[in-house]
Known about the structure:
The structure holds two protein chains of two kinds.
Chain A: H1 2-7, H2 10-19, H3 24-54, H4 62-90, H5 107-126
Helix pairs in contact in A: 2-3, 3-4
Chain B: E1 2-11, E2 15-25, H1 41-48, E3 56-61, E4 64-65, H2 68-72, H3 74-83, H4 91-94, H5 100-110, H6 115-128, H7 144-153
Antiparallel strand pairs in B: 1-2, 1-3, 3-4
Helix pairs in contact in B: 5-6
Amino acid sequence: xxxxxxxxxxxxxxxxxxxxxxxxxxxxxxxxxxxxxxxxxxxxxxxxxxxxxxxxxxxxxxxxxxxxxxxxxxxxxxxxxxxxxxxxxxxxxxxxxxxxxxxxxxxxxxxxxxxxxxxxxxxxxxxx
Amino acid sequence: xxxxxxxxxxxxxxxxxxxxxxxxxxxxxxxxxxxxxxxxxxxxxxxxxxxxxxxxxxxxxxxxxxxxxxxxxxxxxxxxxxxxxxxxxxxxxxxxxxxxxxxxxxxxxxxxxxxxxxxxxxxxxxxxxxxxxxxxxxxxxxxxxxxxxxxxxx
Lengths: 128, 154
């Protein structure tokens, strides 16, 4: 898991899952969640930075600021979801995921599969 | 031809977004909509794109009246959205695919084009906007300007 996490980005993992016929809707939800977490984290960072700068370094009533920020993030997420569905609708999406035809496995893929299984077996044997 | 006759739109049936707007946009005509903040430009564009519907008045495209009931039919909806594109103000909400290539290919993929046609279309868009080098990048890691270009290409 650690090797996969450090060598592949999340989207490549979900793309691989899509190739082995993982349900599209689940993959889309997982993908969107990761993206939203990234965007909302960035947004909260910006809000905190702006609050500190506007308060000239000393943040008064931090609990209120945190509450306001959470409220803002919640509303933003809702609006982003609506816009996302609008964007998909505008691009002719009608609820059914249409795929680009999946590519066939290449020779190098078989080598990697073989190498991965050897590594995995070695890992299991050494851990006994 | 896009035609609006006395269209009004109220948010939550109370707050006016547009009031009694009429205009006609002929084929091949370029139109810029200019106005102060909160004057309803974005609302009008959403309305023209069938994302919201007028509270009163008539909105038609090529002499076909566009209503919520009309666009409920998937065939009509697809035909309508094939004709009218929309670039959102905030590109972050428009870009949702794992890579720039897939982002641009999303619309054409919905039209069930062949792989070759799809590749050609995406290639053309990438070249037209000079973003070939971004092809395999993840959209949300791009700069705002690059995101805007990808949104236009998509």
